[in-house]
Amino acid sequence: MTLVILGLNHKTAPVELREQLACLAPDPAAAYQRLRLISAIQESMLYATCNRVEVLFATPEPDAAVPQIRDFFIEQPELSGADISAALYEHREAEAVSHLFRVACGLDSMIMGEPQILGQVKAAYRLAAGQQATGPLLNRLLHKTFSVAKKVRTETGIGGLAVSVSYAAVELARKIFGSLAGKTGLLIGAGEMAELAVEHLKRQGVTRLIVANRTMARGLELAKRFGGEAVSLAELEDQLLSADIVISSTGAPEAILTKEQVKNAMRRRKQRPLFLIDIAVPRDLDPGINDLDNVYLYNIDDLQGVIQANLEQRQEESVKAARIIEAETLKFLKWRETLEVTPTIVALRDKAQQIWEAELKKTLPQLGPLSPEQQKSLEVLVESIALKLLHDPFLYLKRNHHPKNRSRELDLARRLFNLDPDRQEDLL
Amino acid sequence: MDFWFLIITLGCYLLATLVWLGYLWFPQDRLHLYGTWLVGAGWVSQGAALMVQTLDLGFFPVGSLGGALGLFSWTLVAAFLFLNWRHPVKVLGALLTPLAWLLVYGSWILPHPGEIPPLLQSFWLTFHIGAVFLGNATFTLAFLGGILYLVQERQLKTKKFGFFYKRLPSLETLDALNYYCINVGFPLLTLGIVSGSLYAQYTLGAFWQWDPKETMTLIAWLLYAGLLHARLVAGWRGRRAALMAIAGFLVLLATFFGADFWQRSYHRFGDGGRFL
Q: Is the ipTM here above 0.95?
């Protein structure tokens, strides 16, 4: 049985092709129906996100199966006419396993270490399992994948640092204020990034939100959406008294707040710290504000700088992650080797032999002096009992099972006779 | 006897230093817990050593610079353990443990003998010394917190994030530490000054003699009083409060060691006080 991954992702497919990936294989039932028709593959799983489409499958005849999976891609109506053969990549065995691990850990993502991909792989696996497309090999592989992803996440800092503007702003706020519970946010203007940041802040416990907008109607609308209160831009300076975190994102050509205004406000608010985030271009807030004590001003470039540094950090962490993945790939392949018939029979026989030899060693001294013939026949006795008992299991294992079931039977036999005692913790 | 206790103490503080530096690299709660236990064990052992010394001398070993340093490090660690329990700032241990080790080691190598004349051996002097030392200990913690604050604030202001950014707590936490320590330390120092001056009136016949140590302590007291006042009235916090805590500590440091340079100081270590 060979594990193969065939697919295309953001690195191999041009942007026009990628735009169509998102809606590829919208009907999983039909897709798995189609995959089931390919007799050469026994287990399969399909996952499609906006940046990749991959089919993972197990086949006894990879060379027969791969062209058929290629056809499966080409047949997708969304990709009709496009030349995808250049974009398709193929990984087999160890490469396929580590590729899947890398994907699930976000190492293969556009944004290094992004966490969503793991959820997407999990959802795809649930779908595939629901369609009965997976078998013992893929079940095992996917569970391993999830545990590897968890391990990578806890043991490396790959997902620990903010890589979006809004989240970076929230992290900075937490470094200034500690807990954000009970703090007040002030949103000046509107915009996607600003609103995302407000949502993050609310989730972190910011209780009160003030919305200041040039047009009162828009302000009221936003205030309603976030459960805040709307004020006019003219009241801005007074609002600085109660706000702790200010997010400014207006289209105004000139500064909305001057250093002098903030300085006055700081005096009146008794120097309680103030965190200002200016994501507008051109900037809304006078850069000199950052020179004031207890005031922290970050503009869009500063936040991008934070993100860039975090991404570089993630890149460094990815080396650690790759090491974990390499080790886990080897472990998985080792487990799979045990799924061959002959090693299982050998292991079973070895186990029986160990048992009878140990028992003989215990019993012989208690029988008093025995002639060599007597001892010999005793040894033959225990050996033949053990082997006769195992005879039927051996036959059963050697019988020509349908290949689809073979690995399942082997797995069961190994568990039944506890041939991999150290595997206990891995049981699903 | 106290020799062995001090050896154990030095060992514990050294191990705690290593554990806490490890915590700096791998911030895991487990390491913080081990570090705390090690510091606690060292503190108990140092307490035993101090007890032996006290029984030998008949009074706390404050008559010599070495002895005073030892007693001070003990109160400092006590204050730290209390803070670690009530208001934990976990990385603080990484600064405190090496300092505690250095202080104990210093008290070891610095001159030791220093009898306290029987006339001074009274409850009031114990009270005076206890209050001043504990006050100084909390000010030292405020000083360490102030350093951490300045490091963290600098990173947030310049937007250049280094090794310590992730490892230091939020500015608010560090500022609260400053406030907490000075709030506790200030009444202690006040008590220490008042009790000392009452005792001086009783034994030396004058409340206040402008002894160098008295004068410098008064400067430090005024600094801290000013800081507390400014914080309440004008909201002096953050960087300014951290700088004030550092300035106050430097004055206290000069007070502690400096008095020895003035021959006329009766707070001087070494000959048991000139007045007696």
A: no
